[in-house]
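INFO batch 0412 | record 1 of 1 | parsing
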Amino acid sequence: MDFPQYQPDKAQYTPLTDDELSDLDDFLSEIDNDAAMNIEALDGYLSAQLLSPLSLSDKPGAEWMSPVWGGGDPFASGKQRKKIALLLLRHVHSLAVQWSSKQDEWEPIFSVAEEGDQQLVDAEDWCTGFMIGVDQDGEAWAPLFEHVKTAAALAPIALLGGDESQLSAEDQDKLTDLHWRDALSREVPEGVLTLWTLRQQAT
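INFO prediction complete | emitting tokens
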């Protein structure tokens, strides 16, 4: 099954509207496949694709798109398949443009819960999606987890979205604290922008 490749030099900056994000969320939530992502995981996954040391524009579309819906062919028609593919391409390009020149317009898709008059942010699903993207290019990502600057930027993402069994007992215990998760989640956007800046400097 062919899907279009990401071609940033030919893409226009047209961020998804709330209705389009809702359509994408509905599509993903209706898939009968536990491996399908939700909209938060998708946002994190696409972020990892852009930040990977391996250029997204060099990857076949099917290679990085199909994990979004858990593989297979969940589309009702060729028209729906094309629509979803184009939404993914537009969203990933919007992320790249916002990180580069419109950072005030970028808002990662995190869960937000109300506790009294407080809003508690939880980026676990976003970070889980991000780490799925990392695992796809594991060898290329490995040095970034060793370098001081990139490792620090990746730390909150790995804590929230990585394999919990690999965490220390102390960190596992901390993850049960919603306020600690909130503080950690709020560190993620700055880490993403740091990774983007370092990636751009390296290319």
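INFO post-check: The first helix runs from residue 18 to 29.
INFO record closed
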